[in-house]
Design brief:
With 136 residues, the protein is of the alpha+beta class. The chain has one domain. It has three helices and five strands.
Length: 136
């Protein structure tokens, strides 16, 4: 018996038709981490002025994100949805991250918080802002 002369493929999966499904891409998003320098600003609670978190951005890696301040708890987490949505909308328009920050600072109102005027700062990378949010 000659096993090599079989007309059946060695692996039956190779004999099946290949089908590709076109999947629509998800919403446009900036990267959420970078080891490059970032600029960030503070978002403060409208009730009392406590820092809720930080919005940071880096044009070098097309990255930007909201970082909730741990000590601000659930209020900071809830406020993050607003700033995240604004970042996503800016990315959808093709806006560089630094321009998205500038737009947010020019229209500083959030749901529970607002961007603090004069709070724009530099940090060495995204992890530095995350550390600030944990320690502050």
């Amino acid at each position: 018996m000659d096993f090599m002369s079989s007309e059946r493929p060695i692996n039956p999966r190779f004999g099946e038709d290949v089908r590709f499904d076109l999947v629509a891409p998800g919403p446009a998003r900036y990267r959420t981490w970078t080891d490059k320098p970032v600029r960030y600003f503070t978002v403060a609670d409208k009730e009392g002025g406590t820092a809720l978190g930080y919005v940071w951005a880096s044009d070098e890696d097309d990255a930007a994100a909201w970082v909730p301040r741990k000590a601000a708890g659930g209020r900071a987490l809830a406020e993050g949805g607003h700033w995240h949505a604004r970042l996503q909308e800016a990315k959808g328009r093709g806006v560089p991250p630094s321009q998205a920050l500038a737009e947010m600072l020019s229209d500083p109102e959030g749901n529970r918080g607002r961007a603090l005027p004069g709070s724009l700062r530099d940090a060495p990378n995204a992890d530095a802002v995350k550390t600030l949010a944990k320690d502050a």
